[in-house]
Write a structure and sequence with these properties.
The complex is a heterodimer of chains A (502) and B (552).
Chain A (H helix, E strand, L loop, with lengths): L1 H35 L4 H25 L7 H25 L3 H43 L8 H10 L20 H25 L26 E4 L21 E4 L33 E4 L13 H13 L8 E4 L14 E6 L7 H13 L3 E6 L3 H14 L6 E2 L5 H4 L7 E3 L9 E5 L2 E7 L3 H5 L8 H33 L1
Parallel strand pairs in A: 3-4, 3-5, 5-6, 6-10
Antiparallel strand pairs in A: 1-2, 7-9, 9-10
Helix pairs in contact in A: 1-2, 2-3, 3-4, 4-6, 7-12
Chain B lengths: L1 H33 L10 H6 L2 H15 L3 H14 L6 H14 L3 H15 L4 H16 L3 H14 L4 H16 L3 H14 L7 H17 L3 H9 L4 H20 L5 H17 L8 H20 L3 H15 L3 H13 L3 H9 L4 H14 L3 H14 L4 H14 L3 H14 L4 H14 L3 H10 L5 H12 L3 H14 L4 H14 L3 H14 L4 H14 L8 E3 L1
Helix pairs in contact in B: 3-4, 4-5, 5-6, 5-7, 6-7, 7-8, 7-9, 8-9, 9-10, 10-11, 11-12, 11-13, 12-13, 13-14, 13-15, 14-15, 15-16, 17-18, 18-19, 19-20, 20-21, 21-22, 22-23, 23-24, 24-25, 25-26, 26-27, 27-28, 27-29, 28-29
Classes of the chains: A alpha/beta (502), B mainly alpha (552).
Chain lengths: 502, 552
Amino acid sequence: MEAANNRALQISRRAAQLICAYAVIWLLCLANWMWIQFEASVVSWLQAIVFVASLPISISWIRWATRPSQRQTQLVCFVLTVAYVLLWHLGVFSFDAVEWDVPRTHLARVGTAGLFFVGLAWSIWAVERASQVHESRRRSGQSELPIVRATPATSRAGDVQSDQRINNPFDPSAWYYGRRNAKLNQSVTALSGYSVAFLILFLIFTQMGGCQELYEMPAGGGQQQTIAQTLKVQKVIKKKFVVNPFSAISFKVPPIDEVKLQLTEITEHAYTVGYGEGAGAGFAGGTPKGQVRFIRLEYAGGDWDQDFGIGADVNMLIEYGIRTKQKVAKQTESRTVGQLKNFLPEKSPPMVYLTGQRNISISDSEVKVLREYVIDKHGMIFGDNGGSGHFHNQFVGLMRRVLPNVRPSKIPLDDSIHRIPFQIPFLPYVAPHGGKDALGWRVDGRLVCYYHPGDIGDAWTDDHSGVSPEIYEACYQLGTNVIFYAHSEYSKWLASRQQKAK
Amino acid sequence: MAGLATTESKVRQMKSISANLVVAFLACIVLTRSAYAEPLDQLPLERWKELREVERYQLNIAEKYYREKNFKVALSEYEKFLTLYEQSDGAAYSQLKWSLCLIELRRQNTAIKEGFQSILDYWPDAPEAVAAGYYIGRAYKDIGEVRKAKKAYQEVLENHPKHLVAVYATVDLIDIASIDDDVDDRVKLWRRLAFDFERTRESKNHCVAASQQLAAYLFENGSFEEAVKALATTYPEDQLVAQVASFSRGPISRLTGNDETRSKGEQIADKGVAWIRQRIPTDRSTDEAKQAALQHWYAMADLHAASRREDKVAGTYEQLSKSFGTNDTTLQRLGDWYKSITKYDQARAQYAKFGNKIEAQNQIAYSYRQQQNYDAAVQAYQRNVASDPENQARWSSEVGNAYREARKYDQAIAVYNELLKTDGENAEKWLWLIATSYRDAGKHKEAIGYYRQCNNFPSNYSEMAACHRAMKDFGEAVILYNQVVGGAPNSAPWAMLQIGYTQEQAGKKEAAIRAFQQVCKNFPKDRYASQAHAHLQTKYKITVTLGGAKDE
């Protein structure tokens, strides 16, 4: 019997060690996935295996905890809580892997809300348990005293009036809970304390320390010029015959010469699309593992995620890669305004995309973050009116708050953003929601915001919203120009900073 | 021979006359244009005369397209002129207009670098070079290159301080200073415009505006004397008092509206009143002199009113009445002031004292309407109907309007029907008002009947369609909207969109979608295409909206 117990103890000890080891690996993988983002294929595979393994592990834990011989409510709850965290992250990871951005975002939010309530339930349980322990200790202490017939009111009053002033927050008789409704006050305090603690932890994990992000441009170089296509004309010179026109023999006179266009060779780019000196298409300020990413900005009050995850942004990113031959990310991303703060000044995204058709509700602190992003971090906002005159006013109003001393101006059709790398002789749009002119906000001659008034994002979708090929092609070219402009300006800025540092 | 000589001289004379006529015609064109266009992009008449006929011919073609706002063609015509007559006196002018065409075609960078800059480089002494310098600054400002614009404007101010371009450059620099929120710079530039520049026909408006803005700013800051000096640059002595009152009222009202700045506002008001009091003419021998003195008292009352000191306003009017007696103008002003402080009964008491009893009832009725006391307003108007038979239609119309405002549509319709009988000249107007009253009363069938009698297509058809929609007679509404689409091209996008909404209301989803897509496809540049596109996306989750356009 004892041997069996020892054996069981050994097994459970080994199981605990395995669980601890798995927990450590899982946390490391989570940290890498969320913040470190070390993208070696081995690491990615290991990460995937570890996360996927959480499914059978969670199921086996739940089955173990709910065995009839094992059944303990607290243990079941604890296992369910841990399983909830693991499975939630597995879900988010899976959606992320298959690039279902909208479900991923929703699951991340719903999961966070769920975690709050799970944590709240545990907090209430812990406080209740602790207060029960204190009550029982007090009762047992009182039972040792001579029996005095006392009403509940006098007993509570007696506690408070006793010489010992109780400071322990888990004890409902603590002095600061008062004489009346002490239990209720304790519960409210616990709820408030837990909410504040959860909020702080949430901010720490998502916004503040330890969550610095990096945006690295692809290394390389190139020229900031309009793409010139070379037309290769091959002149085929045929043999010439000298024919005597007075000859008795009749000749079929061949054409003097024939010009053949070698159409398969005409589309070669005359130069590399990029900025600075370096091999291949890219940017001098980039890194070998860097790539062009397409980040959509999340904001409150409206529909930041209009057409998000159904092809528009991804198509644009892919088209950018094809047209410029620069390295691009596999998938598009989204960040909240607050998260822009997490990017390091010289490793922040050169451009973020903002669209929608309803309200834009941005706090003063977020406005500050945006101002810091466009001025101090040399970023650029690519605004796109997704469907209303109201959004136009919202966007212009937002920019007025971000840059109060800069007035928007109509961007000329011969501006470099409309010429490089693609010459766009007109402004293409799907519908004129905010007029027919692209607006720009310039700081020191640089466009810090490009606003497209007519739903350019709709032309990037798989069905191109039914617009003509000429229009959607121009929309892809315009998108390419804007992304390229932002990255080249960022690259120039990095180069000037490096020169200053020298 | 003599006869031949006479014929030759006649021909020469005719040629001379025709040449003069051409010049006169061109002068007319130029002068007519200069009445509304900026003078910087005009070729002076003397220089037109210098051009050869072929040059004038080519330039006229280009000018014609420029006037018609066909800038693409005008651009190529100016370019043609430059190619053909590079050495002409009109070349610099042609280059300037070529650059302005580029500005209109939203190619400001090319206009600056290849247009205006070329004028400065190749024709530095031409009058167009001065304009080109200014236009460089303006083009930079328009595209948001504020720093470059400032630099260009400074160059203009340094090189041509007395030229009209300096005025324009200063005006634009004021705008830039406003964007930068640089108050000191703005005040400096206002002063320069108000005090330093010669006021010509072209520069006058800018200088006047600057003097007014400077005065308003100085009043707000308590520099009363300085502000008066600024206004004195624009207005002669006899208008100055009224203008000082007019431009100081706003700042005084703003300052006294805030507890912190009230005393400052009151001080400015007191200064203003004292300044006006010193200028009250003592001569009251003629009606004109009396009127001039009265205007001073009115100005003082206005300043007191702006400073929200009711006792002083009442006191000023009391003194005024003692000195000059009462007249309708004084009573009107006093009544209006009472209304501004929501003392309507006292206001009406003043109106009632009018010598012109018709106008008195009109003002009383209007004040009742402002208080939404429509019955009393109707009574007042009806008194005018009885006592002013010459303007019966006008007062009856006011009665009808008051009934409509009171939502008493039946009474309003009765009044308009009566007017339809008595005032046949304005039958169209009364029919429309009857129809609108029926529509507002919810009697759509009757409304349609009257709208049908109106001739203001497509407005009447649109209203009839709306009535049919309200009666859930969607088929008829669609037919009417289709008639608008066919008959009124300007309203076609709107009508097509309404067809979509009507089909939607009728539960015909497919037809509605088709209509919305038609709006996007047929009118892709119209604002209603934007609405249709957004509606298709949000309501039906349809991304294929068939729109798309380009703006060249």
